[in-house]
Amino acid sequence: MSSFAPAAKRSKTAESVTDSGEFFPGIGKIGFKPKAGPKEVLCFKHYNASEKIRGKTMEEWLRFSVCYWHTFRGTGADPFGFPTLIRPWEDGTDSIENAKRRMRAAFEFLHKLGVKYWTFHDRDIAPEGATLEETNKNLDELSDLALELQSKYGIKLLWGTSNLFANPRYMNGAATNPDPHVFACAGAQVKKMLEITKKLGGENFIFWGGREGYQSILNTDVKREMDHMAALFKMAIAYKNKIGFTGQLLIEPKPKEPTKHQYDYDAQTVIGFLKSYGLDKDFKLNIEPNHTTLAGHGYEHDVVVASKLGFLGSVDSNTGSTDLGWDTDQFPMDVKNATLVMKAIIEQGGLAPGGLNFDCKVRRESTDLEDMFVSHIGAMDTFARALRIAAKVLDDGILPGLVKDRYHGFDSGLGKKIEENKATLEEMEAHVLKHGEPEVRSGKQEMFESIFNGYV
Ligand code: XLS
Ligand code: CA
Ligand code: CA
């Protein structure tokens, strides 16, 4: 099926790839072919970018984005084995030349896939130098190329972020490190990356709390660490305003990994944190349902909670493996789960300036170059189907109507007074004394599930 040689036979081909000018020869622009057979996987069967649904095109609703770290820096290495994903544009060095060649491959990929957005960490695109000056210079050089390629292909930056977790200096945390010198390194990195994100027209800026958590409560001052994290966020708000960066700031919750307890545990925890520190006007959330399941919730839970509380800014649309206890960053292929997410997104009127970022990696066993396309196409088709189904659920109005009906008691009388915060405990007592025991009403879960199944 693959037109590419097996990974093991590909090596030292970086120069020939440059000569041919194409990094993915044999793969053209991915088209919409709704009638394609089951074995045709290099085409969209459901994602029709320009098709209108509920007043917006599929492209506008879905705002797909490809992440640089997994797709262009992932090697397939795991704690038990060496890299398996040998890409022909890689020459095995961390040179600027290699970084540039990789970036050209990335933009060819985005263009052929037909995705309009990308996301990256500062360290994904440019090597770190011996000093901050050198590191920043490398980042300037690679972001110049990114700017050129963005305009060549009409591709935009969904969000930028700083990698505040890979360098050994951050092993005890970045903003929550007990050493202010390390905090300063994190601040300097965020400052530069805010500038780079602005330069590239980034629509959002993300903070994922890499190692902001603890491994042992015995050596940790939880209060001071959270205060320090809030202090970094306040500096980021101030600097963003100073340089006129208008993108949305986002925090991405995750309950554990790499630390055993991450402060940004889940959506409700982060919203509570933002409100405690007066940051709730400046931040929204980037929800990764894969992290939501790690927190012990259902796939869609944090998306729905964040959205209903007015904090859903963007989504990292990947999935975990519920039979494993760690972050597997798989491509989302479950239509039902995706439908619940799309329902929440439609209900809030869309995700812009956020998007659906594929923070996903092909399995280390998926070694063909075409697997990079097949995986993204499969995930895009999953969300396209989900969009159609969610729109139908909302258009029909049956499920939303039944939910509304469950709460109809709060539309008038005593219920209305409770919702408006105008009622008292004395009135509650008087109501029960007058009306006695309430009637038992079925929750009808199975009926809701059966109706939902009817749409999928
Ligand atoms: C890790 C996170 C990370 C963020 C960006 O689990 O998902 O990749 O999305 O730093
Ligand atoms: Ca993520
Ligand atoms: Ca993840």
Describe the model.
A hairpin with a 2-residue loop joins strand 1 and strand 2. The protein is an alpha/beta fold and 456 residues long. It is built from 17 helices and 12 strands. The N terminus is likely disordered. The protein has 2 domains: 386 residues, TIM Barrel, CATH 3.20.20; 44 residues, no CATH class. The protein is globular, with a radius of gyration of 24 Å. The strands form 3 sheets. The chain has an 8-stranded parallel β-barrel, surrounded by 4 helices. A two-stranded antiparallel sheet has the order 1-2. One calcium ion binds next to helix 10.
Highlighted features:
about 450 residues; alpha/beta; TIM Barrel; 2 domains; 8-stranded parallel β-barrel; two-stranded antiparallel ribbon; 17 helices; 12 strands; about 10% strand; globular; disordered N terminus; binds D-xylose; binds calcium ion
